[in-house]
Amino acid sequence: MARNHGFTIIDVLALGAVTLTAAAATQPILQDAKQQSMATTNRSQHKLISAQQGIFIAANDGQFASANVTGWLSTPGPDQDPSLFTGDTSSSTPTQTVDWITPLLGDAFGWSDNRALRTQQLLEEVRDPRNTLYNDGLFIGGGSSDSQDFIDANALGGFRTTSYLAPAAFQYWGTPMPGGFIPGQGTVTGDAQVWLKKFGGVPYNFGGTTAATIHTPREYRPRVENIGTSASQKVMFADGTQYVEFDGLTNFEVGATPGLYGNFVSGFFAYENESSYGRTRPGILASARRPGFSGNVDDRVLFISFYDGSARPVSVTNAKARPDWWAPTGSEWVSLDGVAAEASDQYEVGDLLP
Q1: Does residue 279 lie in a domain region?
Q2: I need a surface site. Which of 47, 85, 91, 97 has the fewest CB within 10 A?
Q3: What are 276-302's pLDDT values in tens digits?
Q4: Are strands 249-253 and 214-215 parallel, antiparallel or unpaired?
Q5: How far is CA 24 from the centre of its chain?
Q6: DSSP 162
Q7: What DSSP string describes 42-108?
Q8: Is the backbone of residue 251 left (phi > 0), alpha (psi -120 to 50) or beta?
Q9: What phi and psi values does residue 332 have, to the nearest 5 degrees?
Q10: Residue 118: domain span
Q11: Is position 168 within any domain?
Q12: How does the average pLDDT of the chain come out, rounded?
């Protein structure tokens, strides 16, 4: 009699068990490989932006793309004419005064002349691949002549959360200090009228509540020679998510001339209430509300690009322990209120950051 070479039900069940066991065994490997792939892509994005910033610096006498350089189209700071930014302009026009990324990449990527569509492209094409989230809504604020463009774009495709932030301490001019007016060395108390007469507006400066923890050098300007003694120890930009929060929802700021940080700049990293890096909102961190090595916020990992062109992964804990990374050399430590213990254990009030 011929031998039956078919599968029995026992064979099928056994094969299924082996397949499921193999799948369970390989799943962590596949997940790890996927994470590694996304981390590699994220690092490539960092290198791309850093390289373009380096080209910009070389072509602009040491100045780097920033709120007070590329965002200064008519008058300094947020007081300039918003019509220069809104509606249809060019692929490299900043989407906001504080947008330092579009001037570096807009032309090369062929982004839209329309500000709303260009913003959508920027957030989609220049991002950490782990950033799969979209903002919950739009923050219209005081309004803008092209707000409807953003409303229409949001209805069609939405706006992703920001992936990369530049520290304001490097983007803005030095901290104002009491005293008389000194041309070329920053705004000081009572000098607003001088700057208004000279430029028609007041530059973004690291003063007021933004300087509650540190005072940057008064003569600081967004020039590569002013950042500090070691370019490998100064942050050009890092993974991060800027947003306007209402009732626990993240909202993308539409205005072309934001008064403070807008969508692409962050405050001082060592300040515990700096939500851009996931402290007061543990669910939102480093562009994707994602966990790192564990569920602990401080164990999560940021990619950080430095002014020497290097990019490296750093845990939030270690990043908080290096406040000198996030501000120019010579910045004065002025307060311990709300400062991460990792930083406050190293400095006393009045100390200068290296």
Answers
A1: yes
A2: 47
A3: 765 555 444 443 333 333 344 455 778
A4: unpaired
A5: 37
A6: P
A7: HHHHHHHHHHHHHHHHHHTTTB-SSTTTTT-SSSSGGGS-GGGTSSB--TTS-SSTT--SHHHHHHH
A8: beta
A9: -95, 130
A10: 9-344
A11: yes
A12: 82
* 86-132 residue pLDDT tens: 999 999 999 999 999 999 999 999 999 999 999 999 999 999 887 78
Q: State how far the alpha carbon of 49 is from the alpha carbons of 118, 204, 283, 302, in Å.
A: 17, 23, 26, 16
SS (H, E, C) 260-288: CCCCCEECCCCECCCHHHCCCCCCCCCCC
Report pLDDT digits (tens) over 15-44: 556 555 555 555 455 557 777 788 888 999
Give the pair of three-digit tokens for residue 233. 């120890």
Within a domain: 1: no
Tell me the H-state helices in 83-224. Answer: 102-109, 115-125, 147-156, 168-171, 192-199
CB-based contacts of 161: which residues, under 8 Å, 6+ apart? 123, 131, 133, 134, 135, 241, 243, 250, 252, 284, 287, 288
Tokens of 234: 């100064």
CB 300 within 8 A of CB 284: no
Give the predicted TM-score (pTM) of the model: 0.85
Tokens of 304: 């950080």
| Structural domains counted in the chain | 1
Say if 350 falls within a structural domain: no
Q: Are 104 and 49 in contact (CB under 8 A)?
A: yes
Closest CA to 291 of 308, 310, 278, 280: 278
Residue pair 285/277 in contact by the 8 Å Cβ criterion = yes
Report whether 82 contacts 257 (CB < 8 A).
yes
